Each structure stands twice: as structure tokens, then as C-alpha cells.
Amino acid sequence: MVDAQPLALVRIPDRRGSGTRCELRMPDPSANPYLALAVQLAAGLDGIEQKLTPPDPVNKNIFTMSFRERRRFRIDELPRDLHEALDMLEKDDVIRDALGSHIYERFVEAKREGVAGVHRAGERMELDRYLGQY
Questions:
Q1: What is the pTM of this model?
Q2: What is the pLDDT of residues 52-72, one digit of tens each?
Q3: Which of 34, 39, 59, 112 has the greatest number of beta carbons closer than 10 A?
């Protein structure tokens, strides 16, 4: 099995001083920006309410680390595909509450239907469905 490549969701570049910044490396440009912002804010507020503290920084190139090294630093991989992402989403009450039950349920339903359609029809369906749109 090939290791999934880790991806830093939040990154703080090495440069410090007045140019220091924090990069939130999501959402994907195809995301609805209003829903994405609502979820990001809800997650941040939940972290504050739960008094969560960020882990210690990892000042190493995570892309060159072995799976075992990443485990030692508790660096998790992002979901590998939409199916895995939806499985994780369904376990997250913070996101469900942020979106509200109606939007949340329709979103998951639509995405699950899309995953099932891709599996049923294969690559050809993806080309027919998306190539003309973009």
C-alpha cells in the first residue's frame, strides 16, 4: 500500500516579523465560500470553547517523512477521496450544527449520490459530466 502524501492544512511560513502570516490551505476553489467560511468559523469557535491548544510545531519537511515519523509527530493525512471525506464529515457534530440539518443532509446526500454515480458509471461519466462544465 502506498502512503498517502501528508498535506499541511494550516501552515505558518518561516518568515517572521511584520510579514508573518498564517495560511489556511483550504477550502478547494470549487467549494461554496459561504458554507466553507461558516464551517471554518464554527470549528475555530469550538476550539476556543473547548480550550484546545495547538500541538507543538513540526519544523521538518513533512513530505519527506516516513509514515512512522509522521505518526510519532501525530501528523494525520487528509481524506484520500470524497467517500472517505464524507465518512469523516458524518462523525462531526460541529459541522452539522454549523450548516444546519437541512443543508447538511442535502449536501451529504448529493455528494454520496455523486460518489455512487462515479462508481457505477466509471471514468466515462466523469468526463461527460465535468469536462463540459469546466
A1: 0.66
A2: 988 888 888 888 899 999 999
A3: 39
| DSSP 8-state secondary structure symbol assigned to residue 112 | H
64: its cell numbers: 519527506
**Is there a contact between 27 and 97 (Cβ–Cβ < 8 Å)?**
no
27 preceded by cis ω (within 30°)? Answer: yes
Please give the C-alpha separations between residue 130 and each of 24, 85, 122, 125, 126, in angstroms, as whole numbers: 27, 20, 13, 8, 6
Q: Running DSSP on this structure, what letter comes out for residue 132?
A: T
For residue 105, give the C-alpha cell: 443532509
CA–CA gap between residue 90 and residue 105 (Å, rounded): 10
Element (H, E) at 125: helix 123-126
- Amino acid, single-letter form, for residue 117: G
Cβ-defined contacts of 28-37 (< 8 Å, 24+): 35/99, 35/103, 35/107
Question: 1 pLDDT band (50/70/90 cuts)?
Answer: very low
Q: Which amino acid is at 97?
A: D
